[in-house]
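In the current project phase, the collection of sequences with tokenised folds has grown. A representative record is quoted in full directly below:
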Amino acid sequence: MREKLTIAHISDTHLGYRSLSKEEPKTGLNQREVDVYHAFAHAMKAILEASPDLVLITGDFFDKKVPSIWSLRQAFRVLGKLQKERTYKPLILLGGNHDTPRTRESSAVFPLFEEIPGIRVVYAKPERVELPELDTAVMCVPAAGATSLLEENLRPEPDERYRFNILAVHGVLQGMTPYDYTPFFLPMARVLDERWDYIALGDYHDFRKLSHNAAYAGATEFTTTNIWSEKREKGWVWVEIEKGKPPLIRHRTVPTRRVVTLPDVDADTCASVEEVVEKVLAEAEQEEVADALVRVRVLNLPYGERARTHRAIVTGMAQAFHVQVDFRAPQKVAIAQEQAGGTGEIQPVEERWRQFVEERKDELPADIRPEEVVARGLEAMSAVSEVL
């Protein structure tokens, strides 16, 4: 009788992700797409070295339903090598909301990976994958089947015929984010259950342990429209299960492109625009922002000064990979909201724009990235300030 089960849980690799229109000099590929691939490849190398009994990939393996040929080939190559070195031990790949076609008439690339021995793919509906060689059953709920937890009143149940029972779900649980923008907003009561030996979750981009037996693996790189709100450490999860004991759940980090948020600079405390710029660049020098994704918030700067301030900051941090300058106006009291019992605070227009795009990102054409829309909108706001 098997006494122990080890699992490598990885999620939200978003292969094929592209952003910021910068190219890798050697290949001409989008640099962020290459960054995302390198993080994935590093994680897979570490997983190979750890030699788990089972590998679980809990969704959003690709960033789009039709990934780039380069990322598809790289993914197939890496998983093929991984499986060969693991002597084709089980690997389960779930479909996420990013990489699953919306209709049955649309084609999916996932079946291609079942050509690699040991890989099982679940992307259309909930399915129990039985692994008798590990005395294990894995109940898989991909993004396309996650709504059945609500619509069909489905509550996954462990299979008592197997010693180890794993639940794998792609979806955001209630209470994980402040916004209900995702179509897969799942009730925790339908997912969290102490009867499962481990609950492997995907779709949320930060590692988070929700209970003694449940965890989001998080993403392997920064790929959301608001990377500044994410935790700085990305990676995968190592799980050891022994019957009668809580599972050992450990987050293993992978190297990523650095993401830096500089301290806010308040223009009201500065004598001039030049002093604002000096303070921002002084903070950047302390943080060593070379080749990093950088954000700084400048508070209370008049609209008429924003465009030239933006140019000066970006020019002064030319060594950074990308610089995002967010201008924040003073918070104002909205009398009508106050009378209605609200907080009375008006959300900055930049944040409202970012939230608007996030809520409607699924409506965008397949070849347009949400973060590109956010970036262009912020640039337009900055340019408009010149004529206000």
The longest helix spans residues 31-50. Residues 259-387 form one domain.
